[in-house]
């Protein structure tokens, strides 16, 4: 009777699977985090630390104040932003036109054009600049043809060494980065939605403006933000055009760090370049979140 009234002993609690799963997740997450810290965070911190080196070898903000006060920095910053913005606008216009034609205007050879656009994505940027030099340079094929037709020895086209030459080269190279996201966005449109809009008497322009483009805004924002980020940091096209009077921030960083060996000054310029890129990325994330949120609500 006494044995029946005794409380049975509680069984031993096994190890919680949640804790074991959390430890396993930490073990899988730690190596990628360490790799990111090694290849991304450490160089940025190293550049920031180098930018605080003063002329006498100490630490301070003297290098920052000196570099930011120079007119060459302000001119390079303005030139970098203006070229990036103009190139991005040109890529958005040309890329949207090409994507609409490839997606909704079938023609013989459209698949070949799409393959050529994909091929441009794999090429280095300086090849486009070299092609521009062979075609539109002062001794290029176009100037040679115009000289034969007009009998003039002076080159009719001489824009490669100007900001417009850089902008045209960047538009040519970076337009596929707008075309591909737009084609992916257009592929998600239902054909029935377009047929219904057309059957209700809507013109092709109205269907494009009211049906197609609202669905493509996230893809257009993604492509435009990517192009703006790439053109903001582009150096190869600026270098190979030979535009000595067009100094952008990447070109100024190269001059400071490699030519004059002013590493603290180059580190300040590189820090500004990193801040511009991070600000652009954060702005893109906010814009993309707003666009996707508005699309989900509608």
Overview of the molecule:
The structure is a single chain. The protein has 298 residues and is mainly α. It has one domain: MetI-like (MetI-like fold, Orthogonal Bundle), CATH 1.10.3720. Helix content is 77%, strand content 0%. The radius of gyration is 28 Å and the shape is flat. The model is unreliable at 1-6 (pLDDT under 50).
Number of domains: 1
What is the count of helical runs? 14
The amount of helix comes to: over 70%
Q: Give the rounded overall mean pLDDT.
A: 79
CATH class: Mainly Alpha
The span between the termini is 72 Å
Radius of gyration based on Cα positions: 28 Å
Elements, N to C (H/E): HHHHHHHHHHHHHH
| Main beta-sheet annotation | none
- Provide the CATH topology: MetI-like fold
Shape: flat
Q: What's the total number of strands?
A: 0
- CATH structural architecture: Orthogonal Bundle
Uncertain residue segments: 1-6
Task: Pick out its properties.
mainly alpha, disordered N terminus, MetI-like fold, flat, 298 residues
Short description:
This protein has about 300 residues and is an all-alpha fold.
Protein topology:
Layout: H1 2-5, H2 17-51, H3 62-68, H4 71-104, H5 110-122, H6 125-136, H7 141-150, H8 163-174, H9 176-187, H10 191-199, H11 204-232, H12 236-240, H13 249-259, H14 263-297
């Amino acid at each position: 009777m006494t044995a029946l009234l005794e409380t049975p002993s509680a069984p031993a609690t096994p190890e919680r699977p949640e804790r074991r799963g959390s430890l396993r997740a930490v073990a899988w997450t730690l190596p990628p985090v360490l790799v990111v810290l090694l290849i991304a965070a450490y160089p940025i911190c190293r550049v920031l630390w180098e930018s605080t080196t003063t002329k006498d070898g100490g630490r301070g903000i003297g290098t920052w104040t000196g570099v930011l006060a120079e007119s060459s920095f302000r001119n390079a910053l303005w030139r970098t932003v203006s070229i990036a913005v103009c190139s991005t606008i040109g890529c958005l216009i040309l890329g949207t036109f090409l994507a609409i034609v490839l997606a909704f205007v079938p023609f013989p050879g459209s698949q070949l054009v799409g393959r050529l656009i994909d091929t441009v994505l794999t090429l280095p940027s300086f090849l486009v600049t070299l092609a521009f030099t062979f075609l539109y340079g002062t001794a290029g094929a176009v100037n040679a043809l115009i000289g034969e037709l007009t009998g003039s020895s002076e080159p009719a086209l001489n824009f490669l060494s100007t900001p417009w030459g850089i902008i045209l080269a960047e538009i040519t190279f970076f337009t596929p980065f707008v075309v591909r996201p737009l084609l992916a966005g257009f592929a998600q449109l239902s054909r029935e939605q377009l047929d219904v809009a057309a059957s209700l008497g809507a013109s092709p322009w109205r269907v494009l403006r009211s049906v197609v483009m609202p669905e493509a805004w996230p893809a257009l924002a993604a492509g435009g933000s990517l192009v703006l980020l790439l053109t903001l940091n582009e150096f190869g096209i600026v270098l190979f055009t030979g535009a000595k009077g067009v100094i952008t921030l990447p070109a100024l960083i190269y001059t400071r760090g490699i030519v004059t060996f002013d590493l603290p000054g180059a580190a300040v310029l590189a820090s500004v370049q990193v801040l511009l890129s991070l600000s652009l990325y954060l702005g893109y994330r906010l814009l993309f979140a707003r666009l996707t949120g508005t699309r989900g609500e509608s």
